[in-house]
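Submission sheet (multi-component)
Chains listed below:
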Amino acid sequence: MKYSYIDHLYCPKCENTYSHEEKNNLCECGSPLLVNYDLDDLKNNLKKEDLIGRAPTLWRYHELLPVTKEENVVSLGEGMTPLLHMPVLEKEYDVTTVWMKDEGLLPTGSFKARGSAVGVSKAKEVGIKEIAMPTNGNAGAAWALYATRAGMKSHIIMPIDAPLITRKEVYISGADLHLVDGVISDAGKIVGQSAHKHGWFEASTLKEPYRIEGKKTMGLEICEQLNWEVPDVILYPTGGGVGIIGIFKALKELMALGWIEKGKLPKLVAVQAEECAPIVKAFQEKKAASDFWPDSKTKAFGINVPKALGDFLVLEAIYETEGYAIAISDEDLLKEQQLVAQKEGAFICPEGAATFAAVRKLKEQGWLKSEDRVLCLNTGMGIKYPETVQEEAPILPKDATI
Amino acid sequence: MKYSYIDHLYCPKCENTYSHEEKNNLCECGSPLLVNYDLDDLKNNLKKEDLIGRAPTLWRYHELLPVTKEENVVSLGEGMTPLLHMPVLEKEYDVTTVWMKDEGLLPTGSFKARGSAVGVSKAKEVGIKEIAMPTNGNAGAAWALYATRAGMKSHIIMPIDAPLITRKEVYISGADLHLVDGVISDAGKIVGQSAHKHGWFEASTLKEPYRIEGKKTMGLEICEQLNWEVPDVILYPTGGGVGIIGIFKALKELMALGWIEKGKLPKLVAVQAEECAPIVKAFQEKKAASDFWPDSKTKAFGINVPKALGDFLVLEAIYETEGYAIAISDEDLLKEQQLVAQKEGAFICPEGAATFAAVRKLKEQGWLKSEDRVLCLNTGMGIKYPETVQEEAPILPKDATI
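Outcome: structure written.
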């Protein structure tokens, strides 16, 4: 029994193939690469019931992950995050079922841990010693800490405006941290040039093929946690869009394995911020790719991505599942963040809050029906963005009584 | 098959008993109350193998928890936190095995979620609508958010110097938050008077009997995760000491059930801060209870507890397991926090870091042996205390190359 059923890498644009035993970034044609598994072979060797009793981490799906030797797994205990029922919000939004998958309960407090755990593990397996990446915050924090866990050196460049806590996470990991007086695309340029100069491996979003595989485990877990049923709709806060690509890939692989029913794909919804909504614009215009969004800004910093390298894959996932793309104003998403805390006791991040605001809006618009069972992905802990909460409280003297 | 095997409450000091179907705080004699289960009955009805396949939350142990009806469970998905191997630190400290149980991966980012999940659930079961408590931060955040999840009102009083992020957590939950220009004992007095005046239920540490039961699940999980073996030593950052009391109770219950070997208790070590070390002082003087520690202070805010209500139970756990009590300076615990991040990629909290510093010190002193298998409890995420990390990073212009 093999630990992984990975077979090769392929380009979804030009269909070129590559070996997973070598270091790979983009395809020659400039497209991100995807991982292919020998699913026919796996189907004969693994039943979904075999998962019962495995430890509650994303490595329970190791056959569907790219790391071929267990000793290369770099782990901080990531995966099997809670799938919570939100009964108060169901009434508030008037839909049958609202679930939240809480990705805050991961090492480093965000869903970025999934991509970095799998990405760093595979980097270790192919002999990479030094990585470099630009980041808006959470990804850099995750990759820096996992790189340290792997005994690898990391070079992280982030905009000077990125959330302060993520900067501290990178710093304490021992990474080589630089700030740039600019935005993520400026950081990306510095990484590209510096990586080329020093021979560092570029681990930028989708420039390495394995982050998607880590994010894919969100989709695997959702299906397993719902006892191999799928929700009607999954809403995902979309910046680079790796999560939506990964979830779509998970669903297709599970269908190929016969673990979920064929032809019953959940509708995938990309949720963006109003002032950074390139995918929404492309969706409205029925395009296959997005245009660069100039002067993008949003308080949901993690989805401030003006042009995603995998935009065509995100749009494909939306179109093929008969999904949707919707933009939420910062005002609305911050209001919803408060509401989710006050109604359900969950302090979620602004990006996650955008998906709840989207449920409200899509129900009001009639795109969601009362009978829909919807799932919101909260991609991180609220405490990583303390500045989104302006608290007030009376100060009492020592001898007071309320 | 019963959901819970709870039988009654009892006083460990005067042996008075109470019904778990009523609201209870302290015993008439002033001691905290403990929960008794019908373990003989449970032994006949549950095998440890029956746990396999249950969801990875602390509710997998529902037979050993006080909530009698599943519908009263208030959950944000808490439990089954990672038990990580720390291979680099093993060499650093020269001991055979170092594990870390990472309690940061819980709702609200700290181990306080365990006590509040179980405490709030049982409060709901006995009909409590409104709770009040003093807090140094993390407990208040957890109880406020879980109370909201339960549809309960909470009144939280915290010192003005408590960590800012925890204040924001309480605020966003919709709780009634007050700050006091004083320390936790001042907050406690205000809570006592105000709760009495308004008829609120006092949920202060050990003033209600169920927080221990939640914390007990740390001990249950450690044993299950180690395949029903126990470590040689467990180190726990000790403020109120509920965790160490809970772990000790878990071990005794598992022995009574025959799930772990009789007579092989791990040594329990209470780790405190040098400037707030009442348990350490009592241990050195071989006393059964501690004295109030005046002018206590430490950057590990969560263990700034000058006199714990359950001090005699903490000391009993240490004495009965042939454990130890040790104090760490703030300088040493902050240094160790950095080291754990830089060696293992885990950004832990200062309280958790104190346990690693304690391993180093106890090995140097010879109390720990090279062959010992030790387990450190990290009680929360490092990101909840961003002020403990002073980061520095060069700022680059947009067109730079490193």
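Remark: Residues 242-257 of chain B form the longest helix (16 residues).
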